[in-house]
Amino acid sequence: MGLGLLLFLLVFLAIFHAKLLTVGGEVFGPNYIGAYGWASVIGIVAQVVIHELGTIIVAWRLKLPVHFRLFGFGANATATLQSQPRRIWTDALVGIAGPLTGTVFSVILALVYQITDNPFFLGMACVGYFYNLFTLIPILDLEGGWIASAIAPQAWLIGLILTVLEMRYTFNLVLLVFVSFAVPRFVQLLRARLPRTDIACTTRQRVLIAVAFFAMVLGLAWFGTTTFETLPRLILESKGD
Questions:
Q1: How does 122-151 read in b/e, with b if 16+ C-beta sit within 10 Å?
Q2: Where are the domains of the chain?
Q3: 88-97, 99-108, 194-203, 230-239, range with the lowest pLDDT
Q4: Distance from C-alpha of 74 to C-alpha of 48, rounded to nearest angstrom
């Protein structure tokens, strides 16, 4: 359902808003890697490592079997949790740890840019914003899928409304993919096609996870898109062109 909705939206945009779709697609290359060469590659690898370290540390603290393997796009959280009995709160904690750690690292890189005026650090932060946003897409191969089970339908409704409103001002394809997979999940919960797994958590736990989850989605999308829009000018200025 999510893939079908995504394809429909892409076709709709291609027909009626082709320029918006073109601009949105540019976020997949936001860092101007050619401007910094191997330093960019090292920065991107560092983003992935920091992201996965968050998952490993939380899994270790929860006394889960830790898989010392490095995968991108949330596969490490999947490898850690798949062999365990489903415990919704534990799944959500392990799932959210990687994106949260990666987000903090990206914010630190943005602060380093403010101190040094070197756009390389802002570019690396931009990569992190979009990478961590991607991992929050609510499908089970990504961390977002493990977090989603702890989120109540009411929170999905509020979060989706806020996300769609944000897309009016900061459109990017990663956020579009997120919405495309989140809407069917909400509809299936509403129609009782999916079980209410969130009721296994306390009210406090559900509120905490929902607020953290959607705050990261909205924040990462906003900072990722706005940062990306300023990068070309900053890089050209730093190169003296």
A1: bbbbbbbbbbbbbbbbbbbebbbbbbbbbb
A2: 2-238
A3: 230-239
A4: 9
Alpha helix positions (H), the chain: 2-16, 18-25, 38-61, 75-81, 88-116, 119-135, 143-148, 153-167, 173-190, 203-238
| Non-local CB neighbours of 107 within 8 Å, separated by 6+ positions | 125
Integer Cα distance of 198 and 149 in angstroms: 6
Residue type for position 53:
L
DSSP state of 29: S
CA angle (118 as vertex; 112, 122 as ends), nearest 5? 60
Q: Which two tokens stand for residue 42?
A: 């090292």
**Radius of gyration of the chain measured on its C-alpha atoms:** 18
Q: How far does CA 191 lie from the centroid of its chain?
A: 27
For residue 214, the Cα-to-chain-centroid distance in whole angstroms is 10
Report the distance separating Cα 143 and Cα 147, nearest Å: 6
Q: In Å, what is the CA distance from 182 to each residue of 87, 194, 210, 237? A: 21, 13, 13, 39
Instruction: Evaluate if residue 103 carries a pLDDT over 70.
Output: yes
Q: pTM for this structure?
A: 0.83
Q: Would you say 170 and 226 are in contact if contact means Cβ atoms under 8 Å apart? A: yes
Residue 112 CB neighbour total at 10 angstroms: 15
Q: How far apart are CA 123 and CA 227, in angstroms?
A: 8
